Amino acid sequence: MKSKKAIVTMWCLSLLPFLLVALCWSQLPEMVPTHWGLNGQVNGWSPRIALWGLCAIAPALSLGMQFLPRLDPKKENYEKFQGRYDFFGPLVPLILLVCVAITLSESLWPGRINVGRTIGVLVGLLFIVTGNLMGKVKSNWFMGFRTPWALSDPDVWNKTQRMGGWVFFLAGLAELILSLLAPEKIFFAVFFVLLFGGIILTHFMSWKWFRDKKGSLS
Predict the structure, then answer these.
(1) In 3D, which of 157, 166, 160 has the Cα closest to residue 74?
(2) Contact at 8 Å (CB) between 210 and 151?
(3) Which of 1, 9, 66, 75 has a Cα-to-Cα distance from 58 of 20 to 30 A?
(4) What is the DSSP code (8-state) at residue 147?
(5) pLDDT band for position 2 (50/70/90)?
(6) How far are the Cα atoms of 36, 44, 123 from residue 97, in angstroms, in the given order?
């Protein structure tokens, strides 16, 4: 990442969960909800100290977002989509911040939030945004659909990312709409079917585009 504004925003969002947990610590019960089923009901509990581990995920991912491109053999390609990469950087800790806030809310005021639908909306928005960004991502080893065929040819890479972007966008849009209208089990099932079916199809098409191109050159 190169944008100072994006880096500062990303790290502020990454550290905010620690502040939230610290402020709520004395009021938290010894066991807090940390997992919900597809029906939105709590089905997993952990000692409250586990919240610190949840908070640590965001800084770990932010470190990766900031420094992994320097290790990428194709690091020069990041210049071609730097603006989108800088936009995506703060998005990940923002989602994790909301997840920590939901966990704290359910620990202190159980049932106030419909967790299944809230997570469904968040996931939908995340995939819609990611899908819109993916088509402009250039060849690299850390982002996008990194199939062996895409990494071997720039044209195949571009086609693969565009198709993968549509898969993410449509799966996210379906998740967003259905999370507001359909039962929890249904909208999560539809989302996973669309997502994994689309991922399999994208990998197949990536191989086919590579095969067709190499066949036409032979």
Answers:
(1) 157
(2) no
(3) 75
(4) -
(5) confident
(6) 17, 20, 14
What was the pLDDT predicted at 215?
Answer: 76
The Cα-based distances of 87 to 8, 84, 138 in angstroms read: 12, 5, 15
Please state, in angstroms and rounded to a whole number, the distance separating the CA atoms of residues 84 and 134: 9
Q: Is 65 in contact with 34 (CB distance < 8 Å)?
A: no
Segments making up each domain of the chain, as ranges: 1-112, 114-218
Amino acid at 139: S
Q: Are 11 and 95 in contact (CB under 8 A)?
A: no
Written as six digits, the tokens of 161 are 């990312």
Cβ atoms of 45 and 58 closer than 8 Å: no
pTM: 0.86
**Are the C-beta atoms of 154 and 80 separated by less than 8 Å?**
no
Q: What is the pLDDT of residue 36?
A: 81
For 123-145, the pLDDT digits (tens) are 999 999 999 999 899 999 999 99
What letter represents residue 169's amino acid?
Answer: F
Amino acid at 141: W
The angle formed by the CA atoms of residues 186, 108 and 180, to the nearest 5 degrees, is 25
35 forms bridges with which residues in the sheet? 44
User: What is the rounded CA–CA span in Å between residue 68 and residue 14?
Assistant: 17
What's the rounded mean pLDDT across residues 28-47?
84
| pLDDT at residue number 76 | 92
